[in-house]
């Protein structure tokens, strides 16, 4: 029997029981004997649920006032966003592209949470890659996030397509 598995399914290790059990346990889907879920993993799961709701303002409660969110690359949305307003504005732009995320793996150690997820666009469709995020948590708030694209060149191409710069006269107006 041939079964079609999504990229997320493959990365989760479906079909490889040891990997599947390990990933499921880290995501809290393990058996009753599994270790209790780390509170920072729970925080990031709740963050992804809020992100998935499409309500960008619902994300505010997860960020420290001085949050720093770094998006690598060479495209219009790259760079470090500082403070809740800049980070929320970034997510509002992602929402315009119908950006979605599906967590694959979450693990915590101290104040850090490592996340591996599938991220894809729907408007325009075309970007569908694996991303990794390193979250630093303090006081039940995200104080820092560094995003890593599985294919930075594809991400750069997509973001230039989805967020073209205004013509030079418009960009320079008011300077």
TrEMBL record:
- Which residue numbers delimit the SnoaL-like domain? 45-144
CDD domains linked: NTF2_like
Entries under Pfam families matching the protein: SnoaL_2 (PF12680)
The cross-references to InterPro entries, in alphabetical order and at most eight, read: NTF2-like_dom_sf, SnoaL-like, TAT_signal
Q: Which PROSITE patterns match?
A: TAT (PS51318)
Q: Indicate what this protein is called per its UniProt record.
A: SnoaL-like domain-containing protein
Species of origin = Saccharothrix saharensis
């Amino acid at each position: 029997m041939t079964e079609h598995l999504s990229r997320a399914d493959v990365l989760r290790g479906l079909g490889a029981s040891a990997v599947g059990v390990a990933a499921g346990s880290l995501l809290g889907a393990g058996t009753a004997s599994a270790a209790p879920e780390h509170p920072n993993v729970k925080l990031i799961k709740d963050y992804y649920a809020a992100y998935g709701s499409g309500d960008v303002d619902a994300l505010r409660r997860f960020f420290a006032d001085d949050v720093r969110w770094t998006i690598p690359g060479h495209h219009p949305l790259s760079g470090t966003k500082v403070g809740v307003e800049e980070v929320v504005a970034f997510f509002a732009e992602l929402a315009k592209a119908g950006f979605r995320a599906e967590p694959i793996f979450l693990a915590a150690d101290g104040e850090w949470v490592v996340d591996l997820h599938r991220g894809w666009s729907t408007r325009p469709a075309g970007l569908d890659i694996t991303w990794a995020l390193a979250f630093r948590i303090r006081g039940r708030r995200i104080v820092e996030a560094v995003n890593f694209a599985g294919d930075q060149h594809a991400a750069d191409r997509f973001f230039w397509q989805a967020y073209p710069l205004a013509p030079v006269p418009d960009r320079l107006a008011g300077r």
